[in-house]
Amino acid sequence: MRRLLALTLISTSLAAPAVAQSFLDVDQVSLDAGIGASYSPEYMGSGDNNASPWFILKNVTLGTPEGEKQGFSFIPSLRYMGDRDSSDYDRLQGLDDIDRAGELGLRVNYVTGPFTSYGAVRKGFGGHDGVVGEIGTKYRFEPNDKLTLWTGAELELGDDKFTGTYFGVSDSEAVSSGYSAYDPDGGPYRANISLEARYMLTPDTSLLGKVTYGRLMGDAADSPIVEEKGQPSISIGVARRLNFRF
Questions:
Q1: Does the keyword section mention Metal-binding (predicted)?
Q2: CA 183/CA 171 separation, integer angstroms
């Protein structure tokens, strides 16, 4: 994971002139921002689902509404992760609580026709201070002028600080929880396939939905706290399409 981060940072630095030119060529940045609800695993590795808020900040596009910018583009990458209170779950009794975490980084997109391939890297702060990211691809399909669909496949990665926080068991936790100490390595920790939909209620307001099936893998999947490797989720919400013109 450290090598992946280093290569990403080096390639980003080398691409700086191209990044600047990319933004100079863009006359508009658009994104969906809103709120909804998700029904997903209680924590990563849980076999039980619960409902939680879904804070929507997604579908960032560069270019005019009539056509997303083709080729390479660079945009910020953000993610929020909720806290984990171990006393709320029988399987986590004796483990340390994990605070809410924010992640900030950079994402590179490559758009060709209806296909978007992407890679992102972010640094965590708060609940974890690891380095995470994902690589994936999406296919966009527009049955009519109101409905847009995306199908996607994605691989999520995290360094050993990240996997240790969410899947590890320290020596002190082993004493209080009864689990054996477990120190997972970094690397790919989850693979996802998804179907997303956006239905335009008005020109600027949309109903959003997403169905995802994720599966834990590698050292994360082998953690003693993991009850189920399969991690399905469904989300629905309302978002406003925000357009920033230059």
A1: no
A2: 10
CATH of span 2-245 = 2.40.230
Dist. CA 245–CA 51, nearest whole Å: 36
Identify whether the C-beta of residue 176 lies closer than 8 Å to the C-beta of residue 149. Answer: no
Instruction: Count other Cβ atoms within 10 Å, centred on residue 214.
Output: 21
Q: Give the Cα separation of 107 and 12 in Å (integer).
A: 10
Say whether 168 sits in a helix, a strand or coil.
coil
User: pLDDT tens digits, the chain, 246 residues: what are they?
Assistant: 444 444 444 444 444 444 444 444 566 778 889 999 999 999 999 999 999 999 888 777 766 554 566 899 888 898 989 999 999 999 999 999 999 999 999 999 999 999 999 999 999 999 999 999 999 999 999 999 999 999 999 999 999 999 999 999 999 999 999 999 999 999 999 999 999 999 999 989 999 999 999 999 999 999 999 999 999 999 999 999 888 776
Distance CA 106, CA 126 (A): 18
What is the rounded CA–CA span in Å between residue 49 and residue 43? Answer: 8
Q: Please name the helix (run of DSSP H) or strand (run of DSSP E) that holds residue 167, with its range, or none.
A: helix 160-167
Q: How far apart are the first and last CA of the chain?
A: 37
pTM given for the model? 0.82
- The packing angle between helices 2-14 and 16-24, to 10°, is 60
Domain ranges for the chain, please list them.
2-245
**Angle (nearest 5°) at CA 157 between 9 and 32:** 80
